[in-house]
Amino acid sequence: MKSRTINVKGSEIAVCRRNQEDYLSLTDMVRSFEDGSSLIEKWLRNKNTIEFIGIWEQLHNPVFNSPEFEGIKNEAGLNRFTLSIKKWIEKTNAMGIVARTGRYGGTFAHKDIAFEFGSWLSPEFKLYLIVEFQRLKEEEHRALSLEWNLQRTLAKVNYKIHTDAVKEKLIPPKITRDRINAIYANEADLLNVALFGITAREWREANQDKEGNIRDHATLEQLVVLSNLESINAVLIHQGLSQAQRLKQLNEVAITQMKSLSGMTGLKKLKGEI
């Protein structure tokens, strides 16, 4: 994923996502400090640092090699003790600190560990780091909220277009209220079958222990596609296509869009914020 950046006391620090978590560049954090990148391994050799990141790994990493960690911890503090980022990762299967290669490479650490590193560098630097990181997250949250509200508004508009098309093309004059409801339900189930493969009634019969309806239990991706299908179905109704023809086309659209949306990181991120 493309890195974002925060500015901490004049230093541009990259922030990237890994396994749905934020990682900060330790390499960027030390650029303005004397001794630069050598500070990272100096910090890593500190016994308190090893204890901290080892406990963090035990809490968050199911494949962390605790026996190797204990051996490293016991050697920490000895004059002959050395430890590199690469050696730490290879011996312990650590995931809290990672090394990235390429143009935007360097040493990255989970935000919990990066903040601890910032404190070791300078308490003042750590405080500014936290403030700027929180500012970044607030900006991201506002952007996602705007995107989500826009999607909800679009869904409402599409629903209105869809129901108006049903009323105009499929409901004959002077029809009874029960028949009107049946036609609306029939069109709603057309979309359910196109997207979910079953009708609302079939879903209820198969999920009697669940509250709500089939759409209440839809994923975010399915809701986005459903909104699009409502709009597309309205156009197909105006074109005079039969229900069978529309079902075939809507199902093809649903399959294509679900394949596309399932790999979108933006939607995955949005789901994490909702």
Main β-sheet description = 5 strands, antiparallel
Share of helix among residues? 55-70%
The class by helix and strand makeup works out as alpha+beta
Whole-number count of domains: 2
Task: Please tell me how large the radius of gyration is.
Answer: 27 Å
The main sheet orders its strands as 1-2-3-5-4
Query: How many E-type strands?
Result: 5
Number of helices: 12
Low-confidence spans: pLDDT under 50, at least 5 residues? 170-175, 265-274
Order of helices and strands: EEEHHHHHEEHHHHHHH
The backbone outline, from C-alpha atoms, is: elongated
Q: How is this fold's topology laid out?
A:
Elements: E1 4-8, E2 11-18, E3 21-25, H1 26-29, H2 38-44, H3 47-60, H4 66-75, H5 85-92, E4 97-100, E5 106-110, H6 111-121, H7 123-169, H8 177-196, H9 200-206, H10 220-238, H11 243-261, H12 265-273
Antiparallel strand pairs: 1-2, 2-3, 3-5, 4-5
Helix pairs in contact: 3-4, 6-7, 7-10, 8-10, 8-11, 10-11
What's the gist of this structure?
The protein has 274 residues and is of the alpha+beta class.
